[in-house]
Amino acid sequence: MVAPGPIVLVPGTPIGKVAGQIPFESPKGERGVAALGPTLDAGIGLVAVAPFVAAMLAPFIHRFAGAFAGWILAIVPASIFVFLLGFADPVIHGHAVSSALEWVAAYGLNLSFHIDGLSLIFALTISGVGTLIILYSGAYLAGHPHQGRFLGFMLAFMGAMLGLVLADSLLSLFLFWELTSVTSFLLIGFDHARQAARRGAIQALVITNIGGMFLLAGAILVHQLTGTWEMSALRGMGDVLRDNGLYLLVLICFLGAAFTKSAQFPLHFWLPNAMEAPTPVSAFLHSATMVQAGVYLLARMTPVLGGTDVWTNVLVIFGGVTLIWGALGSLKQTDLKQILAQTTIASLGLLVLLIGLGSPYAISGMVVYFVAHAFYKAGLFMVAGAIDHEAGTREITALRGLADKMPVTFIGAALAALSMIGLPLTIGYFAKEEMYLGLMSGQWTAILVLAVLVLGNAMLAGVAMLVMIRPFLGEAVPTPKSPHEAPIAMLAGPIVLGAAGIVTGILPDWLGHDVLVPGASAILGQAVESHLTLALDVTSPLLWLSALTWGLGILVYRQADTIRTVLRRFDNALGWTADTVFDAVMFSLIRFAGAVTRFLHHGQLEFYLVVVFAAMALALFGPMLAWGGLDWIVPAAELGDWSQRLVPPSLEIYEWGILGLAVLGLAAVLVASSRLIAILSLGVQGTAVALIFLLFGAPDLAFTQLMVEILSVVILTFVMTRLRLDQRDHRPFEDWSRDGALAAVCGLGVSLLLMLVLNGTLNTRLSDFFTATSVPIAHGHNIVNVILVDYRGFDTLGEIAVVMGAGMAILALLRRQKKTMEGPPPATDKPKRARKPGKVTP
Predict the structure, then answer these.
(1) What CATH class has 616-631+651-745?
(2) Which of 126, 19, 134 is nearest to 80 (CA)?
(3) What is the domain partition of the chain in residue ranges?
(4) What are 345-358's pLDDT values in tens digits?
(5) Where is the MrpA C-terminal/MbhE domain (predicted)?
(6) Which letter does DSSP use for residue 292 in this model?
(7) Are the CB atoms for 188 and 197 separated by under 8 Å?
(8) Which residue in 133, 356, 444, 685 has the fewest CB atoms around it within 10 Å?
(9) β strands within 500-556, DSSP E
(10) Tell me: the pLDDT tens digits for 519-558?
C-alpha cells in the first residue's frame, strides 16, 4: 500500500496531481488539501473486492434467508454507494484520490486505483443502480432453485465493473475488463438449458474477448512507449503518444477494445442476443455495466489519444452510424426487451459520437447523457421485466390497458420515458440541450452531425412513447396471465430511478456543479464551466431544435407500425445480417478445426512418433548447420589430427561395466525375440542410465530415472497383458530402415549438441543467480528443489498435470477394455432369487 504523506497545503492543485488527498480549510481560514489516512486509501480497492466476497457468500445466504436474500445482499452495493459519496467533496473541488497495492514489485506492477470526477460518476451509478437491481433480482427470481447462484453472478459482475472504472493501472483495467466478459457470459447463459441462451453467451464472450486482446496489446504498447502503466501518469505526458509514429497502432488497439465492448457498428450484433439473459441482467448490463466499459475507456483515454483528426473522424462516423442503426433496429422489434436493447446500441453510438467531437459542450452532454441513460434504461428494463413477470408476455402488440391493473408500474415507465424523450424538467432534457449546443457553428460538418443527432434522438423519443403508451393505455386485451402489480422489490427500481431523472432535472445547479463539471473536467483534463438553467429562451435555436426532435418523435410513434413493416421487408430482401455472418464464420472455423484435427490426429500412433522425431532431428541439426555449430568437429587446420580427438575417456572399471550394461540393454531391445524381453531389456538400459547419473554426482536425477524406469516397465507390462507377450512384432524393412535412421540421426544430434555445449565457454550467470537468491528469496537451501518449485514452478506444475492426465487416460482405457472383454451380463427370463443372509455368492 502506498503510504500517505503528511498533511500539506497545496492550494489549487489540478486534477490528477493529488494522490490520497482531500481539500480542507484550517481554523485560520487556510485552504488546501490534506492526505487521507491509510484506512480510506485501502477502502478504494475494497470497493472492487467487496462484491466478490458477497458473491461467494450469496448461495449460502440464499439457502438460509430464502426470499430475503436479495434484501440482505443489496446492503453490499448500498454500502459501497454511501462510501463512495464520501469522495464527492474532494472530487467536486477538482482533486483526485489514488491508492496502490504492490502486485509484482520486481516489475513495478501495482493494483492501483484512482478516483476523479469520471470514475466517481461511473462507480456511483454502478453501485446505486446495482442496489436496486439486486433487490429486483430477489423478487424476479423468487423460488428459482439457482437464485443464490444468480445473485452471486450479479455481484461478481458488479465487482468487475467497479474495479474497471476505478482502476488506474492499464493492467488492472485489463484484469477487470476480462472479468466483466466472464461474468456476463455466466449471466447471459444462466438458463443454460436453452440453446439460444448458450449461443448468446458464447457470442458475447467471443466478441468481447477479441476486444480484450486489443486492450492488452494497446496497454503493452503504451507501456513500451511511455514507461508507465498508470493512466493518471499518462494524462500528464501531453502529446507523447499523439506525436509517436506508433500512435495509429495504439489507437486501433484501444478503439478495437472499446467498439467490441460497447457494441459499435458493425460489432453490435452480440448485444441484442444478450437479451437471452434474465431481465435483471439486461437492466444492469445495458444501463451501467459492461456495455458502458468501452465508452468509459474512450472517455478516459481522451486526454492521451483524443484531439486528432483520425480520432474525431472515426468516432463521429462510427458513433453516428451506430446511433441511426440502433434506433432503426428498435423500431423493427415488438419484444419489449429487444426494443430496449436496440435503443441501447443507439445510445452507445451517441455517447461515442459525443466523445469523438471532444468539445466542452459535447463532453458535458456525454456526461449528463450517461447518467440520464442509466436512470431511464434500467428503469424501463425493470418495467419490461415486471410486465413479463405479471402479464406473461413482452410482445408490445399483445399488450393494452395495463395501467388499471399495474398503476405503479405505469408511473415508473412514464417517469423513465419522459427522461428518454428529453422533455423539460428531466435530466434527459439537459443532456439533449448540451449535445446540440456544441454544434451551432454553422459549418456543414457540424450541421450534418446535428442532423444525425436530431434524427437519432427523435427515433429514440418515438420508441419511448411506444414503451410508455402501447402496453398501458387503451382498451385492455387478454394476456397469458392475469396482470397484477409486481412486488415492491420490483417496483422500487423503476420508481426510484424515474424519480431521480426528474429530481436531477429540476436541480440544474446541483447537476451542473456536482456532476457535469467534475466529470467533464476529468475527461478533458481542463476546467469546464456549467451553464445549465431552467430558463427557457423561446428565441433560442436550441428550443426549436428540441421542439423539432419532439415533433419527429411523435411522427415516429404514430407511424411505428408502418416503419416496422418497411424495415422488416428490407431485412427479408437483404437476406443476411451481421449475426448471420458471425454464425457463418464460427461454423467455418469449427469445420476448419475439425479438418485440421482429422489431418493431424488421425489415430496412427506410429506416424505421430515419426513426425515427432523428424521434428526433433530438424530442431537439433537446423541451428547447428545454420550458425556454424559443427565447425569445431573438423577444423580446417586440423583435418588429419583425429588421433588426438579419438582418445578414449579415462574411466574406472566399474564405470566401463555400467556403460557396457547400457549398451547391452540397448542391443537386447533391438534383437529381443518377444515383446516381454524387449520391455525388460528397455528397463535394463534405463537402469544403467540411472546408475551413470548416480556415479557422476546427480543422485536426485538417478532416483527420478530409476522411478521412471520401474513405473515404465510395470505399466507397460500391465498394459501388454491384454496382448500376447510371447510374440515378436514383425516390421517391414522400410519401416525398420526409416525408424532406425531417425533414431540414429536424433541420437547423433543429441550427442553432438552436448559435445558442442561442453566445448564452449561455461556461462555461470544463471547458476550464480540461483546460488545467490535461493535462500533470501525462495528460503530454500536445496537449490535443485528451489529451481523445481519456485523458479520453474509452472514448468513443474505442467509436468505433474501431464503425468496425472496420462495416468487417468491409462486407467480409463484399462477400465473400458475390461468392460468390453467382460461384455454385458447374459439375458435371462428367470427371476433372481433373494440372497440368504450371510451367504456369499461366488
Answers:
(1) mainly alpha
(2) 126
(3) 366-582, 616-631+651-745
(4) 999 999 999 999 98
(5) 738-822
(6) G
(7) yes
(8) 444
(9) none
(10) 999 998 888 888 888 877 777 788 889 899 999 999 999 9
